[in-house]
Amino acid sequence: MSELGLSLTAIAIFATTALALVGPMLGSSPLLPAGLGFGLLVLFSLDSVTWQGRGATLLIDGIQQRSPEYRQRILHHEAGHYLVATALGLPVTGYTLSAWQAFQQGQSGRGGVQFQSAELEAEAAQGQLSQRSLEQWCQVLMAGAAAEQLVYGNVEGGADDRAQWQQLWRQLDRNPAEGNLRSRWGLLKAKTLIEQQRLAYVALVAAMAAEASIEDCNRAIAAAWIETAVAD
User: Fold this and answer.
1) H/E element, 74
2) In this structure, what DSSP letter does residue 45 have?
3) Which of 94, 95, 102, 180 is 20 to 30 A from 110 in CA distance terms?
4) CA 220 to chain centre
5) Which InterPro entries does its entry note (predicted)?
6) What is the pLDDT of residues 160-216, one digit of tens each?
């Protein structure tokens, strides 16, 4: 079951259990908890089929966004993607830090960093991704997890990034075991790059926290950038 599916199931179980415990004190029908649980599952299923799960994503992310720690982790994760994409010559075109911001911009999911990837996507669609493009894509996708490792010492996010990498690897008809090794390589490369440009990363985090424009974020990176060779 997906992370979203587990979260929705947990919400339904929690609501049903809470009502079952509190219901008798309120004099409600003993059938109400079961009805509520069934209704929630039906509602979540309809959302999944008709709206690709966007409603549930907005609900879950909205609850999680109430936590300052969660918001900070998302911020640092996405800043990792942004910095590495910029360093590897993939211009960033936008970013969002919540499902609601993504929804307002007509995007699916919980948000993230958007960059100019038309060339990479065209190559991938033909199953002929060059080695350089493959390495770029791998490092950018793993950069969020790399940033979390550096800042927090562990990784909680990045499931969508890993799924996207696995999908790309299958599309290229490559050995799955090799894909796992390559993703670990991308994680290490991205982590090294962020470590080398720690000042630029910190400046970018501050800019993104202030919801700065792409232009201002890029200026923040440039002002703190340390000239060093980016390994291929």
Assistant:
1) helix 68-87
2) H
3) 180
4) 23
5) Peptidase_M41-like
6) 899 999 988 888 888 888 999 999 999 999 999 999 999 999 999 999 999 999 999
CATH of region 68-224? 1.20.58.760
Residues in the chain: 232
Q: 98 and 58 in contact (C-beta within 8 Å)?
A: no
Positive or negative, the Cα torsion across 141, 137, 117, 231?
positive
Dihedral sign (CA 164, 4, 158, 68): positive
Which has the higher per-residue pLDDT, 217 or 8? 217
Read off the DSSP letter of residue 65: T
Strand ranges for the chain from DSSP E? 92-96, 112-115
Nearest to 95 by CA among 204, 230, 224, 195: 204
The DSSP call for residue 112 is: E
User: For the chain, what are the domain ranges?
Assistant: 3-51, 68-224
pLDDT per residue as tens digits for the range 49-75: 454 556 566 677 667 778 999 999 999
Cα–Cα distance measured from residue 171 to residue 62, given in angstroms and rounded to the nearest whole number: 33
CA-based end-to-end distance of the chain: 36
Label residues 18-42 b or e (16+ Cβ within 10 Å = b).
Answer: ebbeebeeeeeeeeebeebbeebbe
Whether the pTM exceeds 0.90: the reply is no
CA R_g for the chain = 21
pLDDT score of 10: 55
